[in-house]
Amino acid sequence: MADAPDILAAVNDYLIGRGIARDPRTPDSALPPLWVEEDVPAPGERGTPERGDVVLGAQYATGIPTEPFRSDVRWDGVAFIIRVLDTAAAITLHARLRDAFLHGAGPGVGGHLAYDMAGRWVLECREWTSLQPLERTPQGRTFTCEFQFQTYA
């Protein structure tokens, strides 16, 4: 049986593999660092190589309960924290996340077809919470969004 952290590892590898994010320990680049199950620093809050004008975090979130007689599948939720200097950057990154997860089976293909997400077979992906503002501070803005992934249990 797969356990919850597997979905986060697959999300991490998938986003890095698609050139949407980078490991926070890799050299500085135009890609946002992706912090998995860690506190997400504000843009510019940490030194090189962790810094970035856009910072992304992924955390395990509440999934969807299994339907009766469907113990072969599970729904795992992943919440994303997006910390940016300006709102436009959050909107752009959110659009890239939507495209990667909802069209993972290929360009122009909706999220209802299965696809391989870095070794984890995703049967369906749903955007559970669209981009929402959480906080505005002198350090920047914080947004969140959430996706649900249906996989084999």
Q: Briefly, what is this?
A:
The chain has 153 residues and is α+β, with helices and mostly antiparallel strands. The protein is 19% helix and 37% strand. The termini are close together.
What is the global morphology? globular
The run of helices and strands is: HEEEHEEE
The helix-and-strand class reads alpha+beta
Helicity level, as a percent range? Answer: 10-25%
Q: Return Rg in Å.
A: 15 Å
Mean pLDDT: 87
Number of helices: 2
Distance between the termini: 6 Å
Largest sheet: 6 strands, mixed
Q: Strand order within the widest sheet?
A: 1-2-3-6-5-4
Percent range for β-strand residues: 35-45%
- Topology, number of strands: 6
Low-confidence parts, pLDDT < 50 over ≥5 residues? 1-5
Descriptive terms for the model:
disordered N terminus; globular; 153 residues; 6-stranded mixed β-sheet; alpha+beta; 6 strands; 37% strand
